[in-house]
Amino acid sequence: MVVTNNVVLPEESELTVEEVNLSTATLRAGSFHLGKYCENQNNEFMLCRFEEQDPRKCINEGKAVTACTLEFFRKVKKACLAEFNQYANCIDKSSGEYSFRYCRKTQDVYDKCMLENLNLERPPFGYFCEVRVHDTKRPKPPVEEKAVYPDATPALPEDAEKKPARFGSRFYWMTE
Amino acid sequence: MADACQVIRKQDLPPPGGYKPIPFKRIPAKQYFSGYTLFAGYIGMTIGAIYLYNLTAQRIKKHEIEMRSSKMAIYPMLLAERDREYLKQLRRNRDAEAELMKDVPGWEVGTYYGEPVYKLVPQDALVEPIFHEYYAHTNPSDWFRRAYIKLRS
């Protein structure tokens, strides 16, 4: 394998946290409110992940994301368990792709409960497909500078003599 | 001899009243629509079909956007979980390689007898191993099951 002993990998104990042990239908059913509830942590993590391009540097952000997700589902369990289960069951059994279009009635019930108890509104249509700006305190990773080679071919001096073209033009195929 | 030829013979003749006239005249099919009506009908039907098509296309597009929104909302959570498990597995792989090659003199983990695979990246850079390296120490049946999903789909 390409991972040598010089590569610092985090210890197993650092990486072990309580994971979200939920089914796909459950996650999909709660996804919109979850994305809104954990928007800050999610954006922070995704920005880190795509700026750093290294999973080792975003462990803590990832832990925050998982913790927030767990917190969200615990709140849902406390406040709207019956409505949520009804909705998740509908999503699970109505289609093979966890489609939402067959579950508008149960969705309304669930949305209403979430709005009343947790004061969480369903985000507008297509909210998570839009570009969202995130303000972070994490410094931007340094951009790799353009390489400078000592033996590069020197450019012409500024005041080099430029004669008029002999054949009327200096297009690239006219290699005079 | 002559008696044998006295059979009454029936001559082939036209039926009484003569033959029917031969139908050689061209009878064109009945025309329900004129050419202009056909053109107009074609354009009208096409416009109607485009309208209906667009209704369905909009419905499908909205559905796709909704599904994509939902997936994007849970993606950070799934990615965070995946990253942690991935790093754990990398450590397990490295330990397994060290354990496997401990009797080989001169072998260094992650290199070929001390010669690194990537020479221009920093020493600490994490280069994600390819599929076959990542699964090198697993049970072959797990490898094949995963390869069937990952490499053929």
UniProtKB/TrEMBL annotation, chain A:
<comment type="function">
    <text>Accessory subunit of the mitochondrial membrane respiratory chain NADH dehydrogenase (Complex I), that is believed not to be involved in catalysis. Complex I functions in the transfer of electrons from NADH to the respiratory chain. The immediate electron acceptor for the enzyme is believed to be ubiquinone.</text>
</comment>
<keyword id="KW-0830">Ubiquinone</keyword>
<keyword id="KW-1015">Disulfide bond</keyword>
<keyword id="KW-0679">Respiratory chain</keyword>
<keyword id="KW-0249">Electron transport</keyword>
<dbReference type="InterPro" id="IPR016680">
    <property type="entry name" value="NDUFA8"/>
</dbReference>
<keyword id="KW-0813">Transport</keyword>
<dbReference type="GO" id="GO:0005743">
    <property type="term" value="C:mitochondrial inner membrane"/>
</dbReference>
<keyword id="KW-0472">Membrane</keyword>
<dbReference type="GO" id="GO:0006120">
    <property type="term" value="P:mitochondrial electron transport, NADH to ubiquinone"/>
</dbReference>
<feature type="region of interest" description="Disordered">
    <location>
        <begin position="140"/>
        <end position="159"/>
    </location>
</feature>
<protein>
    <recommendedName>
        <fullName>NADH dehydrogenase [ubiquinone] 1 alpha subcomplex subunit 8</fullName>
    </recommendedName>
</protein>
<keyword id="KW-0999">Mitochondrion inner membrane</keyword>
<keyword id="KW-0677">Repeat</keyword>
<comment type="similarity">
    <text>Belongs to the complex I NDUFA8 subunit family.</text>
</comment>
<keyword id="KW-0496">Mitochondrion</keyword>
TrEMBL record, chain B:
<dbReference type="GO" id="GO:0005743">
    <property type="term" value="C:mitochondrial inner membrane"/>
</dbReference>
<dbReference type="InterPro" id="IPR009346">
    <property type="entry name" value="GRIM-19"/>
</dbReference>
<keyword id="KW-0679">Respiratory chain</keyword>
<comment type="similarity">
    <text>Belongs to the complex I NDUFA13 subunit family.</text>
</comment>
<comment type="subunit">
    <text>Complex I is composed of 45 different subunits. Interacts with CARD15, but not with CARD4. Interacts with STAT3, but not with STAT1, STAT2 and STAT5A. Interacts with OLFM4.</text>
</comment>
<keyword id="KW-1133">Transmembrane helix</keyword>
<feature type="transmembrane region" description="Helical">
    <location>
        <begin position="33"/>
        <end position="53"/>
    </location>
</feature>
<keyword id="KW-0830">Ubiquinone</keyword>
<protein>
    <recommendedName>
        <fullName>NADH dehydrogenase [ubiquinone] 1 alpha subcomplex subunit 13</fullName>
    </recommendedName>
</protein>
<keyword id="KW-0472">Membrane</keyword>
<keyword id="KW-0813">Transport</keyword>
<keyword id="KW-0812">Transmembrane</keyword>
<dbReference type="Pfam" id="PF06212">
    <property type="entry name" value="GRIM-19"/>
</dbReference>
<comment type="function">
    <text>Accessory subunit of the mitochondrial membrane respiratory chain NADH dehydrogenase (Complex I), that is believed not to be involved in catalysis. Complex I functions in the transfer of electrons from NADH to the respiratory chain. The immediate electron acceptor for the enzyme is believed to be ubiquinone. Involved in the interferon/all-trans-retinoic acid (IFN/RA) induced cell death. This apoptotic activity is inhibited by interaction with viral IRF1. Prevents the transactivation of STAT3 target genes.</text>
</comment>
<dbReference type="GO" id="GO:0045271">
    <property type="term" value="C:respiratory chain complex I"/>
</dbReference>
<comment type="function">
    <text>Complex I functions in the transfer of electrons from NADH to the respiratory chain. Accessory subunit of the mitochondrial membrane respiratory chain NADH dehydrogenase (Complex I), that is believed not to be involved in catalysis.</text>
</comment>
<keyword id="KW-0249">Electron transport</keyword>
<keyword id="KW-0999">Mitochondrion inner membrane</keyword>
<keyword id="KW-0496">Mitochondrion</keyword>
